[in-house]
Amino acid sequence: MDFLQQLGQQTLNGLSLGSIYALLALGYTMVYGVVRLINFAHGDILMVGAFVSFFVLKQWGITPVTLILSFLPAMLFCMTMGMLIEKVCYKPLRNQPRINALITAIGVSFLLENGARVIPFIGPNPRVFPTLPVVNYKVVGINISQVQILVFMVAIGLMLLLNYIVNFTKTGKAMKAVSFDKDAAALMGINVDRIISFTFALGSSLGAAAGILFASAYPQIEPYMGIMPGLKAFIAAVFGGIGSIPGAVLGGLILGVAETLTKGFLSSQLADAIAFGLLILILVVKPSGLLGKPMGEKV
């Protein structure tokens, strides 16, 4: 395989990984955009979604159809969990200093991880996620696997659906209004609590989908599996401009490609360093991110 083919192959692999980061980053960026909270528990929603799909597939068996169908219970479960977490943990702190909610988010993350470890039917030991048979197709000399096709189809479909919800529905427009000014939105008759709950539900459902795709690509699941993808997705959201939906997608794709090119041409041990290096670089050069807008702070 010559250099150009290798470059094309690694770029394709990076776009596949970046699509998963982008789905997860959308949850971070939507929640931050609406309630100015960095929900560090969001990475663990990925883990929960993967485990729900795992148990469903254990019952149904693994076929392309059952794998697609397993998204529905996983996304519904995580959607409910996201709303419950918001109601119980974050809503009481909404008018408190932001650091309180941030610390609570870290606590919720630990609760989900360690709670999963002690639940008998999950436990601390890694499980093998059911996977489809390995099938590769060759396009202009570049291999694309069946799993990568699934990742692209699901990620693009969900992003288009999210774009429709945010830009063309009444609830989506209310989300944008609340993100701009909660008080003014409330005066205009928008139910702010309902919109915030909807935002958590939407972000958590995307996190569940990202979890299934991640487990399909890297078929080992365990209670701490959401930590590193969660951090990478957070970096992607910041890199693209946290609060910006197109920025989260762009940041996820750039991060995925950068990470995969590093693994392919430099060293796999440098992949995480590149991700965190990009975070430092963007914070120094353009703190608002590639597509973010500078926001003034009230003093």
UniProtKB/TrEMBL annotation:
Source organism, top-level taxon: Bacteria
CDD domains: TM_PBP1_LivH_like (cd06582)
Stretches that traverse the bilayer: 20-38, 101-122, 142-166, 195-221, 233-258, 270-289
Subcellular location: Cell membrane
One GO cellular component, as annotated: plasma membrane
UniProt xrefs under InterPro entries: ABC_transp_permease, BCAA_transport_permease
Pfam families registered for this protein in UniProt: BPD_transp_2 (PF02653)
Membrane topology type: Multi-pass membrane protein
Family note: Belongs to the binding-protein-dependent transport system permease family. LivHM subfamily.
PANTHER family: BRANCHED-CHAIN AMINO ACID TRANSPORT SYSTEM PERMEASE PROTEIN LIVH, HIGH-AFFINITY BRANCHED-CHAIN AMINO ACID TRANSPORT SYSTEM PERMEASE PROTEIN LIVH
Protein name: Branched-chain amino acid ABC transporter permease
